């Protein structure tokens, strides 16, 4: 049995237990585990000793080895458990948890300001009996210009700097007015009362006041005996609901090839607003839209008989309106995706 003494399981056990009791946190315990039970650990080395044990003693050697292994493993697991618990308690005492504190509020998303103003416009127009109609953003030159009384080379085309596509005759619409023709051709000879919201595109330099991509809301009313007075009444009612009950509406004559007569509409800006001078360039009036009585040629292009019906149309910029209402001084903020800006609405 002299050789069996090469492996002294009892000493291994005593050393192992002493090591375990000296290790008082998880890293130290893990290091102990590697030293004893790792691939090159003491237990594995001790097991190797079996080769030198005489056959008749091997069973006893194995039993003893097993007993010591189980004893060490059990103690290791217990020590690891209590080390972890101690760490947890230490953490909690160092940074106590106050269960009476209210929870952190979850941030709530909001609709994009452009969507909000559009919905406000829909609500006001719906009360006045308008239906919402959608039209395409990639348009033909024919609908965007020709059918709106602007033949090729018409100088008024210069009012809209155009994005062309690779397909000849196909462009990005420069305004929502081509939607007028689509609606008319679908509805003629019936009366019409629609708004057409949507994105428009203009090939212009981007600045605080103009974007190459912006929203417009077109309005179109057609019927027997529709007059300028109806247009004026509609726009005045709209402006008062959008900007406040005391707003004055001012109408100036203007020019668009597809309306005759054509007008531009201003509203007076509240005298008490400190931004009034800057926003109105000192005049006290702010332009909010272009409008007019639908040109007879356009009515005809849409399939109506201008001797039987008349109509009015308007085109407004919702983003511009929101800029006025909320004193936003840079239109680029709309597509800038800055949450600090968007979260204010
Ligand atoms: N389409 C015109 C523009 O974009 C606005 C407008 C619409 C004017 C309808 C008159 C009638 O400038």
State which percent range the strand residues make up. Answer: 15-25%
- List low-pLDDT spans: 1-5
Instruction: Please bin the fraction of helical residues.
Output: 40-55%
Write down the overall geometry.
elongated
Q: Specify the number of helices.
A: 12
Radius of gyration: 41 Å
Bound molecules: phenylalanine
Largest sheet, described in full? 7 strands, mixed
* CATH structural fold name of the largest domain: BirA Bifunctional Protein, domain 2
Q: In sequence order, what are the helices and strands, one letter per element?
A: HHHHHEEHEHEEHEEHEHEHH
Give the strand tally: 9
Counted up, domains total 2
Q: How far from one another are the termini?
A: 89 Å
- For CATH, the homologous superfamily of the largest domain is named as Bira Bifunctional Protein, Domain 2
Structural class: alpha+beta
């Amino acid at each position: 049995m002299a050789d069996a003494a090469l492996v002294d399981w009892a000493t291994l056990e005593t050393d192992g237990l002493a090591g375990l009791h000296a290790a008082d946190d998880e890293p130290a315990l893990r290091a102990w585990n590697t030293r004893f039970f790792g691939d090159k650990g003491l237990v594995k080395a001790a097991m190797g000793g079996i080769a030198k044990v005489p056959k008749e003693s091997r069973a006893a050697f194995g039993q003893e080895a097993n007993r010591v292994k189980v004893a060490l493993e059990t103690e290791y697991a217990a020590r690891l458990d209590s080390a972890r618990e101690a760490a947890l308690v230490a953490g909690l005492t160092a940074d106590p948890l106050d269960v009476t504190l209210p929870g952190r509020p979850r941030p709530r998303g909001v609709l994009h300001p452009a969507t909000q103003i559009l919905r406000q416009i829909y609500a006001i127009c719906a009360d006045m009996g308008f239906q919402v109609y959608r039209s395409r953003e990639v348009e033909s030159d024919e609908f965007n210009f020709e059918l709106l009384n602007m033949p090729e080379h018409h100088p008024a085309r210069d009012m809209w700097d155009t994005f062309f596509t690779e397909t000849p005759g196909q462009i990005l619409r420069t305004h929502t007015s081509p939607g007028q023709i689509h609606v008319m051709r679908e509805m003629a000879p019936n009366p019409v009362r629609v708004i057409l919201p949507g994105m428009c595109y203009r090939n212009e330099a981007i600045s605080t006041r103009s974007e190459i991509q912006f929203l417009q809301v077109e309005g179109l009313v057609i019927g027997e005996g529709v007059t300028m007075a109806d247009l004026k009444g509609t726009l005045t009612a709209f402006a008062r609901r959008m900007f406040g009950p005391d707003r004055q509406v001012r109408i100036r004559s203007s020019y668009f090839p597809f309306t005759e007569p054509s007008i531009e509409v201003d509203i007076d800006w509240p005298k008490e607003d400190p931004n009034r001078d800057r926003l109105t360039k000192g005049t006290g009036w702010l332009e909010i839209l272009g409008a007019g009585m639908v040109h007879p040629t356009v009515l005809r292009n849409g399939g109506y008989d201008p001797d039987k019906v008349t109509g009015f149309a308007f085109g407004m910029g919702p983003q511009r309106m929101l800029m006025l209402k909320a004193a936003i001084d840079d239109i680029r903020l709309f597509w800038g995706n800055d949450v600090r800006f968007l979260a204010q609405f």
